[in-house]
Predict the 3D structure of the following.
Amino acid sequence: MEFASYLLPLFQLNVIGAIALGTLGGLIVGALPGLTATMGVALLIPLTFGMTPVMGLNMLIGIYIGGIYGGCVSAILLRTPGTPASAATVLDGYPMAARGEAGKALGMATIASTIGGLFAAVVLATLAPQLAGIALKFGAPEYFALAFFGLTIIASLSGDILKGVLSGMVGILIACVGADPISGVLRYTFGVSGFASGFAFTPALIGLFALSEVFTQMERLALDPGRAMPVTGRWPSRQDMSESKGGLIRGSLIGTIIGIIPGTGSGTASWIAYNETRRSSKQPHKFGTGYAPGIAATESANNAVCAAALIPLLALGIPGDVVTAVLMGGLMIQGLAPGPMLFQTNPDVIVGIFGGTFLATIFMFIFGMLLIPLFSRILLIPRHILAVSIVIFCFIGAFAINLNAVDLYTMVGFGVLGWGMQKFGFSQPAVCIALILGPMMESNLRRGLLQTGDDVLAFVSGPITLLFLGLAVLSLVWPLIAARIARNVTLPSE
């Protein structure tokens, strides 16, 4: 009965409307080339400030789920992935659209995304509470090891490990601005009173991901965005569904597993799922020619990551991917600290998130199937109009949180930083992760040393600390493993 009472707020009309609106908005954002789910979530976090936690967080999750799915639209119609998660979908989606089966390709992508999302949502609802129960045993050394593990995933967020590490170090240095977490002494504020509490997190995220992308897109406006394919039909045939069963199962499993591992993300999951489905297929030569199982594998995998990436965020306070790192800002705006105590202090929010994930996935399916005939028109919105609209939303969103002009300077500064990092191949997500976990690692290190009388062995002797330190080592070598997997994937010639 208590569980059912926690679900009641989820089924209020305003909450359902917010989830539906967020999912639809995320779908449109993901469908437009150059706009990502990360940008959509970062832009709309300020709008959730006056909402209840269940409404605001589920709207952001709807944007996340809709955005990851929406990337397949331009991948199939324009041969331009709307989001990095849909890069592998181009291989079979665009050839299918080119031969007049764009509707069928979009239908298969929608069905696969729904199956992968629902599968991972079930895992989220069953596995996250178990992890949270274990995490209740955490003390300062355990939280330090956890934060250290989270920082090591930075190596997985950049193709160049050295640039990823340097990006993380920049983020840690920026996180040091403001009051010392133990003594309260001001650090690196350079006399600016507005920086006494550090850089405002949400304006920094908006600048780092949304405004920086606008700067990048302004450089590309002269390029031809391509021609949208006409869309007819929407349902794949029985043969397509029968041949795609294996891809749907593999994609859902691989996407869920990859999503739980912090720092990997939808892009990695979709490529691994595509490779494994093709490798185990009886007709591997059909992949890359417009073969439905290829779309089924990639789209079920990248959407399974969405719900699965919430597991480490909610249970451990470690974001599973870039978007959940931004979602952490949404939790903080609501006054909620992600981690094991959230299950004890706010079980209604946790249950609401579980239910909201299911609802957002269902709305994604409904909107996806209904809008298939209109997708080609959505893709024709001029990019310069889109860029101006985003800039306006960035400034409104950054200022509305604290009504502080310093936040606007913060947003612009991080926007320039993010644009430069993107231009020269540095990792913006690494900076984001470091901004979140750097203070957590520092405060728990110093608190633990105070509690144990400067006993360093306390940080390497407990079973939980040893587990996370071991995972940290594994996370550091993961880029090497991923690179070997990538070398083994032989992409079909165009």
